[in-house]
Amino acid sequence: MLFAIIGIYGGFIQVGVGIFILAALVLQAHFDLRTANGLKILLAFLFTAPALVVFMWHQQIYWPFAIVSTIGQSTGAYIASKWATKTEGAIWYMHRFLLFVISIGAIQFFLKFYQLWPK
Fold first, then answer.
1. Rounded distance between C-alpha atoms, residue 103 and residue 84, angstroms
2. What does the alpha-carbon distance between residue 6 and residue 20 come to, in Å, rounded to a whole number?
3. Closest Cα to residue 108, out of 99, 100, 116?
4. b/e code 76-91 from CB counts within 10 Å (16+ = b)
5. pLDDT at residue 117, rounded to an integer
6. Which among 21, 61, 78, 116 could bridge 40 via Cys, Cβ 3.0 to 4.6 Å?
7. Mean pLDDT computed over 34-58
8. Range name among 38-42, 51-55, 110-114 with the lowest pLDDT average
9. pTM of the model
10. What backbone phi and psi angles, to 5 degrees, belong to 89?
């Protein structure tokens, strides 16, 4: 069920879906961080490619944001992968970081949902 929700979110919004996939794979499916990251890339590609085609066909992509987002995510992934392979105890840090990011995202979602977050 969790992966279906993440898939729906990823198909419509895509931005930041990788962190949700990674969190679900590590925290719920109990994959190690390296394996989970490989699966995350595969899963994100499988539902992002068709969604990208649909949104491109309907000219519903804001390209400046998409380009900046792509550069930021790629740079962050590269830096994080180098750090994770060289740092002792990286998995402990990443678990805490994932929980922090998911918590902040959930708080923002509920505050926006109830119209309490400033616009």
1. 22
2. 7
3. 116
4. eeeeeeeeeeeeeebe
5. 57
6. 21
7. 87
8. 110-114
9. 0.55
10. 80, 20
Token duo for residue 66: 């998409």
Dihedral sign computed on CA atoms, order 87, 99, 41, 75: negative
> C-alpha 53: how far from its chain's center?
20
Which tokens is 109 given? 């979602």
Q: How far apart are CA 33 and CA 39, in angstroms?
A: 10
Structure tokens at 18: 């990788």
Question: Could you read off the pLDDT of 50-95 as tens digits, one per residue?
Answer: 888 998 999 999 999 999 988 998 898 888 878 878 888 887 887 8
What's the pLDDT at 116? 65
